[in-house]
Amino acid sequence: MTQFYFIRHGEQDWDSIEKYNLKGQAMDLIPLTDNGIKQAKKASKDVRIGNSNIIISSPYTRALQTASIISKETGVDLHVEFDLREWQSDLNFNYDSKDQLIELWHDYTMHGGVYPQDELKLWETKENLRKRIDSVLVRYLNYSRVTVVAHAEIFAALVPVDKILHCSILEYTKI
Description:
Layout lengths: L1 E7 L6 H5 L14 H11 L2 H4 L3 E4 L3 H14 L3 E3 L17 H13 L15 H12 L7 E6 L1 H5 L12 E6 L1
């Protein structure tokens, strides 16, 4: 049995998107705010995280920065997992603004993450997201305690919660 500790990344610096005129996939390069760094340092003090055998992280900057802070503070090794990336709002990676991202998110939530019959959408379905995340987690079942730093929607696909705050910790057991 493996105990997973899911940590949502720290607060991200949305202002960087406009400052650097980031579009599409480049929007995933934004770093943490100073507050996000403090959130990550605080999360690293949680005994559950310090007792983890390994930390795995999304490759997106905000998650990887959070995970690297936690790894440094705890001394727990960090591995990057590409499939822990955020829910894909646009499977073609072509969205070009925060407004379009929000529009795609609203469409996804309106449909409960399921494509309406006879319709194709740009976004990744909740079922495909679950399968993608599960394919990562099963590779770590040989560990007893694993910290996973990633994104709210990833965790919400596995754990029924309404809201996941930055650097909050959710427990998830997988047998």
